[in-house]
Amino acid sequence: MKTTGPLVEGNLAIDFVNTEEIRRGIRKDYIDTADTFSVWLTDEELEGAVSKEQLPFEVEIWPEEAMGKVHELREEIRDNVEQTAECEEVGPRFVKQMESYIEKAPFAMKLHEGRVVHVPVGDPVEKLCSLVAADVLRMIGEGQLEHVRKCANPECLFMFVDRAGRRKWCSMRRCGNRAKVTRHLKRQAGGD
After folding, report:
1. Phi and psi dihedrals of 185, rounded to 5?
2. Calpha distance 55→178 (Å, rounded)
3. β-pair type (26-29, 20-23)
4. Which domains does the chain have, with CATH numbers?
5. What's this model's pTM, rounded to 2 decimal places?
6. pLDDT digits (tens, 9 = 90+) for 133-166
7. Distinct helix (H) and strand (E) counts, the chain
């Protein structure tokens, strides 16, 4: 059951950044409190992006002070991915930042249902930050980060992986169709 904001990509790092949106001119944060963060972590749709065995579920109530670290990581990723999208080069400082998150909660390997799963070890907040940072580094290593784009709708915060090289919108349903309708109405109003 979907319980939180849109998970556009099925990619942990991008879905994490996409926990914030602007809807009808109002900024909405789907992980603004420890409670909403817990709900996001248990969203079934997150399963495609990360294995449930990797997530820090031993914490039933996340401390509010942890949210500052979570939001800081989200902003670091958003800012750097937007910058990378503009210049198509990943900065070494960004890589170092992501590596430092992983160093705070390094990974152990566990066998789960016949496959090896990398599970971060340490403080629950550090674990989550480590998982997200590892996904960012994976994207860099696989050349995916250069294909991450911000939606062409200036009022949309969502990011996506542009695999084909032609995509402009986070989704046609959310932003693409709205832009087409707006253009159509402007043409009609102009008499074209």
Report:
1. -65, -35
2. 36
3. antiparallel
4. 12-189 (1.10.3300.10)
5. 0.84
6. 999 999 999 998 888 988 988 888 999 998 888 8
7. 6, 6
